[in-house]
Amino acid sequence: MYVVQTYEEAIENLRESAREQFGEDFNVSNTSTWFRLLGLPISILCVEKSQNIKDLEDRMSIYKATGTDLDDILSNFRFSRKQSSKSTGTWTTSNSTPNTVVSIGALTIERATDGITYKNTNAVIISSLGVGVFEIECETSGPIGNCDIGEIDKITTPVSGISSGSNTDTLQDGQDQETDLEYLSRYLEASSTEAYWNLDGIYSELLAVDGVTSAYVYCNRENVTDSNGWLPHSSI
Fold first, then answer.
1. Is-contact 115 158, C-beta < 8 A?
2. Whether the Cβ atoms of residue 28 and residue 39 lie closer than 8 Å to each other
3. Most buried residue, 48, 49, 91, 133, by most Cβ within 10 Å?
4. pLDDT by residue (tens digit) across 191-200?
5. How far is Cα of residue 52 from the mean position of the Cα atoms in its chain?
6. How far apart are CA 115 and CA 111, in angstroms?
């Protein structure tokens, strides 16, 4: 590991070099002309350059690099940082006007408790029974858009023919961009094994998917279907 040179070390090295070149009686004290014109400015420059070398070493170490420096290092191993993702889910209306057509992005709905908004990502035609199923996406990235069933029940931008509705499933795939620590930890876990199709390998690949923050992998190691209905030697 590289150690940054101190000012005292730098000036002493310069003094020794000056004495070797000009003799032991050469004046290298703090009051000398040599010190003011050469010794002081050069020693300060040496310390700065030494610190630059140390900074470069740190940026090249996965254990000390941060931000884009860490991205650059791990991208060399085809290992990318997981980016922020938006929560997605399903919003259903069951009492709207049949044959109403809603284009993509025309419907804005919100979670009444805090005003977080969502838009539809599919075009929908209300059925003859007044039912319409919308795929929705939060307008804000991150886990703030995650919510339980029934929480998104307020229409922000009214659409003619759409009366009311709510989300019919849990939204839980919104996540923030990986922090440096999370990114590095996932890399170290993935690189600690050369597994690909065993449980550890499947687990690592699942964690690499955007929106996935945790995973559990189970394997039925028996030759028969188990009590959960999983086929012999299958992994879930």
1. no
2. yes
3. 91
4. 765 554 455 5
5. 28
6. 5
